[in-house]
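User: For my dataset I need records formatted as: sequence, then structure tokens, nothing else. Please produce one.
Assistant:
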Amino acid sequence: MALGQDFSKVWRVSNSGNCAWEPDFALAYVNGNRAEARMGGQPVLVGRRVLPGEVIDLTAYLRAPQTYGTFQGFWQMRDSAGQYFGEVVWVGIQVPDPNPPPPPPPATINPNLRADTNYVNAGQCTNIRWDVDNVSAVYFIDGGNVQGVGGHDTRSVCPYQTTTYTLRVVANGGASSDFPITINVGGGGNAPYSINFWADRTDIDRGQCTTLRWDVQNVNAVYLDNEGVPGVSSREVCPGSSHTYKLKVVKRDGGVGRARGAHQCQDVQPQQNNPKIEEFSVNTNQIRIGQCVNFNWRTRDAAGVNFYRSGMALLQGGPTQGGIQDCPDAPGNYDYTLDAYGAGNVSQTVTVQVSPVQPR
């Protein structure tokens, strides 16, 4: 309804009692959801004698309020003595605001895009990491290669020259935003590095916890007990028995530095190479039920691979170079993960959207 618009409401009511309604009986306004819900309505007299079982149409002449909103008024029959009886009936209208408030601005997307180190030598590697929730899709762009990835994921990159990689995030509304990150490649590996590794407490009782902390600068990669970690970070640990935690770093020149417990030591023996995924691709990211997708991969320094579809193993102990086909039988988004293992682990994920078959 428009502001102040006149309209009428008709109720068809039945005398279901044992007594006749007299002409001065009326259908009257009782209450409403807002002060204006009466909408100017006056009691509607029956106007004649209505016998038990008879039906009569009663019309109220109303006017929409001079304000915006939803209005609901409740009406009920009353007798000559002013006593209300019978069922409550109602009338409801909506008066829209022609100038509604603007929608709230879209939530700001922050994928927390980062690298273990942004400075490497030619051919050395680093891990690019990101964390983003409540979005439609995420893509990692390496040159002309656009790869669907998970919202919480990692990519190992080994550029031979300074390279900018892009994380493309597609919001639930369809808008996409690009987030660049640059890995700078230098020529030498002799920059000074530092390792600082300590624990809040080194003597604890069984069942208690302590926090390990480290600050490592100017290195290629950092590992805590062979798990890749950021260069400056901390972790709470609760060992069940005496345990020595080892922090290992890969220096810019390929040598290895180690810190044990809270004491620093150095060892420049070359480490066993961690596995790398040189290629992991899918022939298409969108199919319909009944169609299949084909995956191919090539790894280096890996002992084997495992292949998963949304957490379910499709292949275990597979070859370090090969391919596989999968034909999902239900619509939805599926994350396919290739996990290469050996001296360590590295994984990559691509997303495939399976749509229902279009009706003919």
